[in-house]
Amino acid sequence: MEKEFVFGHQNPDTDAIGTAIAFSYLQNKLGYNTEAVALGEPNDETAYALKKFGFKAPRVIKEAAPEVKAVMLVDHNEPQQSVSDIDKVKVTHVVDHHRIMNFNTADPLYYRAEPMGCTSTIVWKMFNENGIEIPEKLAGLMLSAIISDTLLLKSPTTTDDDKKAVEALAKIANVDYKEYGLAMLKAGTNISNKSEEELIDLDAKSFALNGHNVRVAQINVVDLPEALERKDAFLKAMESASNDNGYDMFMLLITNILDSDSEALVVGSNETKELFEKAFDKKLNDSEVKLPGVVSRKKQVVPPLTEAFEG
């Protein structure tokens, strides 16, 4: 059987990398020949989880077609978030927890989308459905993905299945998920040693909204005021990235993981800024706005933006 790549989205987070590794393991147990790869280097949080459970980071690829004819996608489906030559390979499997947008295939495929807090929760269910045992270290990595995506089960995206998965995986991995989870999340909040250009690209996704190219980035911190001291530098970097890449609007969500509050910085045209204000029913003050309780890009940012831009 020819090899297929398994990978998550660009600018990969712990879900994108951890779930690619887990899904590749599952598919190999089911008779496929797969390799988990990544579309970028792991961030600090993901590197912490990989080291904790003894995994090497998957190798980074820029293109898939030179090596494989088919791929499996996890934690994304939108082509602009995928490998650069996604149109040159066959997508055979998708496991995701996001909206479905601009996704078309020539042939039938296995597609599983569930509104879970994390893709790894869906893969955990698939292990159970197929009666395949999850190794201890892999359970720890899957646990890390769910903790990351749900902010230790505090995100509004969290479901009962996510909670069940966390408890089950923590037992297999033999860790206290609350203690470990907080340490892992904090590992990803050190922004002092990174440039603004690096930070706005660490966890960023592009969305096509009614003809507009909208970029939404997110960084997690434990000290929001300290992060906002770099506001002017963030805005300059966002403007530069928008000019270089044709973004009509660039939104940076800075989230305090301890109290689940965020502030947003926004650059764009007067039109897109007005649409942003319409989406959140809040006025920007010098390109900044408080968004208390907003922590999920998937559930609390992209849906209102989509409605405003397409309304």
UniProtKB/TrEMBL annotation:
Catalytic activity: diphosphate + H2O = 2 phosphate + H(+)
Annotated Mn(2+) 1 binding sites: H9, D13, D75
Key words, A-Z: Cytoplasm, Hydrolase, Manganese, Metal-binding
Entry-linked Pfam families: DHH, DHHA2
Gene3D superfamilies for the chain: DHHA2 domain, inorganic pyrophosphatase (n-terminal core)
Binding site for Mn(2+) 2: D15, D75, H97, D149
DHHA2 domain: residues covered: 181-309
Any single GO CC term annotated in Swiss-Prot or TrEMBL for this entry: cytoplasm
Top-rank taxon: Bacteria
Matches recorded under HAMAP family: PPase_C (MF_00207)
Family of the protein in this entry: Belongs to the PPase class C family.
Identification of the protein by name: Probable manganese-dependent inorganic pyrophosphatase
Organism: Lactobacillus gallinarum
Record lineage: Bacteria, Bacillati, Bacillota, Bacilli, Lactobacillales
Annotated gene: ppaC
